[in-house]
Task: inverse folding
């Protein structure tokens, strides 16, 4: 394994700091779920008079979605108020894993069971996920960012725009360097493409330069980040991207640019 | 009953209200070895129709009948909710019923905007049970009590039948045939449900599928399952 490289490839993302390290107490009094409008479509308002920012994390089985969420919670958990919804296919394993890791308090994590149709739950019928997202946000108000992990699926899975505001697609280097070339809506249109497990490249004969070139060709100017969550468990550059999205979201809210 | 377009919208398995993730007790029955093939699936569906199917359809019909007669403010929502609650023994299925009720109302609010659906939740803590939500949604969609009861019984049958295709690898066309052969039974159950729905709330039918309720509690403990219930 010593030959594995974990250095990040091209610096797509400028890692400049914005200096908005707001510190929140995570133990806000919780809202009684009895008073929730279950059918509300907008959910509970957070900072900036706007509902929390929702980010979907999708990608093939085992690519590192849960590892990325654990990393984001560890890196951002003290400056942003976070909540996580997991979508497991058969179990509540991912939620259990996050709870065990203690990256977030229990009450900030919720598992949705998707009846063996992970793509349905994030795209065609998002009612269970919306229900979970809104209950979680209400219970932990104010939430800044809610992360929704899709059940591991294939390259065609994408999130409905009614469920999330941005999506991150996570690929696994060990899936082979041809995957970005194969494209699909996740690779092509996700707001951020994360290519994870760079340490495995030499072991599976994957060429990271090829992956980078093909991904760029598919994505135009959309950002790409190479990660090795196994060795850089903080996912600094992805965290920075989330930080920037969250800041932009509140600014838009404060400026009244959006409903 | 005259066929209405709206009843098809409501009954469509693709109506995005969360039903696809639930097997109506079928996964637990498959695990227990009681449903294995088309014949045992037929028995399961018939059993479900005559128990949970009737109970749920009657609650939906009772809701619809009351909404036809009175303004929503005059409907005894608490009593309706209590009757629905009392007819589900398993705590897990109670929770499932409320969750699906919330999901149905959520989707229906965007489908058939109405004050009734907007006001529903405050009247029912934690969301209405699915049967009551179905009655309300059918009402705002313009369905009469019988159409509401029939769409309810159709859901009772079609949900587990679809799950059986996934779980047992049964021939999808044969399962469609099975759903179709239950037409007369389903319509009879719906007619009974409508009749009962017009009567007093505490006399609504309550045949229970006890084994399904018990198994659903065990199903929750399964380490690996495809369906949420
Ligand atoms: N070698 C290596 N392994 C990693 C890396 N990141 C994650 N893993 C491992 O990959 C496996 C799958 O990671 P998860 O985070 O569970 O992947 P996932 O995408 O959430 O998986 P599903 O939810 O099952 O689709 C775990 O054993 C992780 O420890 C990495 O950068 N390098
Ligand atoms: Mg995962």
Result:
């Amino acid at each position: 394994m010593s030959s594995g490289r974990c250095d990040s490839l091209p610096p797509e993302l400028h890692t400049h700091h914005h200096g908005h390290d707001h510190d929140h107490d995570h133990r806000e009094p919780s809202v009684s779920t009895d008073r929730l409008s279950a059918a509300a479509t907008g959910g509970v308002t957070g900072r900036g008079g706007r509902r929390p920012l929702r980010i979907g994390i999708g990608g093939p089985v085992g690519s590192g979605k849960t590892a990325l969420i654990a990393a984001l919670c560890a890196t951002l958990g003290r400056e942003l108020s976070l909540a996580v919804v997991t979508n497991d296919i058969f179990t509540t394993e991912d939620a259990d894993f996050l709870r065990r890791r203690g990256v977030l308090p229990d009450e900030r994590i919720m598992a949705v069971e998707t009846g063996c149709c992970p793509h349905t739950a994030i795209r065609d019928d998002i009612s269970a996920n919306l229900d979970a997202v809104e209950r979680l946000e209400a219970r932990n108000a104010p939430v800044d960012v809610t992360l929704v992990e899709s059940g591991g699926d294939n390259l065609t899975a994408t999130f409905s725009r009614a469920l999330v505001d941005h999506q991150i697609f996570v690929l696994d280097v060990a899936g082979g360097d041809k995957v970005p070339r194969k494209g699909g809506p996740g690779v092509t249109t996700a707001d951020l493409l994360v290519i994870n497990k760079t340490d495995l490249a030499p072991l599976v004969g994957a060429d990271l330069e090829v992956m980078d070139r093909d991904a760029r060709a598919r994505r135009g100017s959309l950002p790409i980040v190479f990660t090795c969550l196994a060795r850089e468990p903080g996912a600094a550059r992805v965290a920075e991207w989330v930080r920037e999205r969250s800041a932009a979201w509140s600014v838009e809210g404060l400026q009244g640019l959006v409903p | 009953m005259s066929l209405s377009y709206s009843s098809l919208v409501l009954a469509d398995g693709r109506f995005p209200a969360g039903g696809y993730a639930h097997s109506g007790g079928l996964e637990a029955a498959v695990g227990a070895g009681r449903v294995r093939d088309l014949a045992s699936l037929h028995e399961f569906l018939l059993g479900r129709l005559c128990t949970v199917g009737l109970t749920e359809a009657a609650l939906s019909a009772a809701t619809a009948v009351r909404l036809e007669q009175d303004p929503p403010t005059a409907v005894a929502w608490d009593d309706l909710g209590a009757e629905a609650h009392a007819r589900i023994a398993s705590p897990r299925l109670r929770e499932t019923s409320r969750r699906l009720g919330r999901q149905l109302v959520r989707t229906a609010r965007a489908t058939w905007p109405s004050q009734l659906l907007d006001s529903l939740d405050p009247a029912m803590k934690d969301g209405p049970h699915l049967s009551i939500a179905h009655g309300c949604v059918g009402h705002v969609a313009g369905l009469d009590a019988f159409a509401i009861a029939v769409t309810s019984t159709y859901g009772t049958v079609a949900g587990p039948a679809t799950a059986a295709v996934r779980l047992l690898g049964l021939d999808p066309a044969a399962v469609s045939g099975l759903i179709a052969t239950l037409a007369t039974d389903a319509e009879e159950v719906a007619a009974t449900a409508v009749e009962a729905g017009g009567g007093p709330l505490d006399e609504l039918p309550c045949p229970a599928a006890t084994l399904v309720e018990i198994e659903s509690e065990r199903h929750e403990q399964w380490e690996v399952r495809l369906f949420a219930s």
